[in-house]
């Protein structure tokens, strides 16, 4: 039988902050989950590609053509795919050294502020990446290497991941602002 959770302000691994009992629900949480799943699939694909390329280099004397290009695209997209999920699950680093002893409402206000800052940063990054994707498409920019893969689509997916991250941060901003963090 598991012990009862510690009461608010009792300390613990998260500095006394209560964590949500269950994952958030709704469209933003579902999108974050799907992006994290896609990021996991991309990461698994990169791991398999790397393993196969190393084995072929060892057994057949040569790697998979363009493995570096594919690994860099896949790894970047995997990392971006996890951002929204980490935000919606509040799996980010919380530094509450100075606020741990403050009243919950004040902590919620501080958390709302910083989630709003994170949402703003993610929105700026999403907008910049969307612009970059459009420019990469217009100029025909490709990876530098053996395959020369067009990169506009990867930049566009990164922009979508940042937009979803901003939506997740805004979800928590609203919850904290209502005192329901």
UniProtKB/TrEMBL annotation:
Residues 1-22 are annotated as: Disordered. Keywords: Cell inner membrane, Cell membrane, Membrane, Transmembrane, Transmembrane helix, Transport. The keyword Translocase does not apply. The keyword Cell inner membrane applies. InterPro entries: DctQ. Pfam families: DctQ. It is a multi-pass membrane protein. Part of the tripartite ATP-independent periplasmic (TRAP) transport system. Belongs to the TRAP transporter small permease family. The complex comprises the extracytoplasmic solute receptor protein and the two transmembrane proteins. This is TRAP transporter small permease protein. It comes from Caldovatus aquaticus. The lineage of its organism: Bacteria, Pseudomonadati, Pseudomonadota, Alphaproteobacteria, Acetobacterales.
